[in-house]
Amino acid sequence: MTPLDTAHAAMEAAPDDDDARLTFYDRVAAAELYLLLTAEPEGDALDPRLFETSQGTFVLVFDRVERLGDFAHDGATYAALSGRTLTAMLTGQGVGLALNPGVAPSSFLMPPDAVDWLAGTLRDGPDEIDARPTEIAAPTGLPEKLLGALDAKLATATGLARMAYLVATTYEGGGRGHMLAFIDPARGANGALARAVREALVFSGLEAGTLDVAFFDASDPMAARLARHGLRFDLPKFEPRAAPSAPGTDPDRPPKLR
């Protein structure tokens, strides 16, 4: 059972449970998916194999390369892409995702409108404000499902920051809220971390909720205050690996569909 299998089973067991459905779509976005192609990639251009059904047109994706092999037999051409990259490529094209068709418990057709919704959810970013809290306290009253969603989301933010602290805040003028403060964020990682927090809100069913995000150096006096009062999340450290070369493995050069 893969994470997608588990999330799909939970969604199927409770079709009226919005939380289970959102968790499944979150797993799709976070998964590495293997897209079946008709031919070897040419540069950054991909030519996916299309699957025509009475429900529309779909590309074929699998969450394990072995499952792709079971479907298409050994030697099939494919590209490895994250779910978020693939939905961004497909949005607005009227093409859905056929996930693990006929080869896994998580066999599922995601229609084009669901692909568009997921891509839009992942694309939208948080609003930026310039404010610094005047008071810091331990967090209180936050839903357990939000804490679980933050823990799961930050566990995938490898190398983007050393740690994060969740605290209750008071701002000038008396405004109150909660803040997730990242310590020693990597250069250029602020946007990705802020989007990860927003996704945790959305996929835990709390899209209407708010959670401020801030970034501090470990040498900032605020960091010591956060450590005294905050709930700490440790982010995984980055482990160097070989430079990517296959289409879809470089996030700065996403592939194109032909």
What is the level 1 CATH name of the largest domain? Alpha Beta
How would you name the CATH homologous superfamily of the largest domain? Uncharacterised protein PF11572, DUF3234
Largest sheet: 6 strands, mixed
SS field, number of helical segments: 8
Write the layout of secondary structure elements.
Elements: H1 3-13, H2 18-30, E1 32-36, E2 45-46, E3 50-53, E4 56-62, H3 65-72, E5 78-82, H4 83-90, E6 95-99, E7 108-110, H5 112-123, E8 135-137, H6 144-154, E9 163-170, E10 176-183, H7 190-203, E11 212-216, H8 221-229, E12 231-234, E13 256-257
Parallel strand pairs: 2-13, 4-6, 10-11
Antiparallel strand pairs: 1-4, 1-5, 3-4, 6-7, 8-9, 9-10, 9-12
Helix pairs in contact: 1-2, 2-4, 4-5, 6-7
Spell out the key features of this protein.
Trna Endonuclease, Chain: A, domain 1; 258 residues; five-stranded mixed β-sheet; six-stranded mixed β-sheet
Describe it for me?
The protein folds into two domains: 3-123, Trna Endonuclease, Chain: A, domain 1 (3-Layer(aba) Sandwich); 135-234, GMP Synthetase, Chain A, domain 3 (2-Layer Sandwich). It has eight helices and 13 strands. It has helices at residues 3-13, 18-30, 65-72, 83-90, 112-123, 144-154, 190-203, 221-229, and strands at residues 32-36, 45-46, 50-53, 56-62, 78-82, 95-99, 108-110, 135-137, 163-170, 176-183, 212-216, 231-234, 256-257. α2 crosses α4 (83-90). The two termini are 33 Å apart. Residues 9-117 form the SseB protein N-terminal domain.
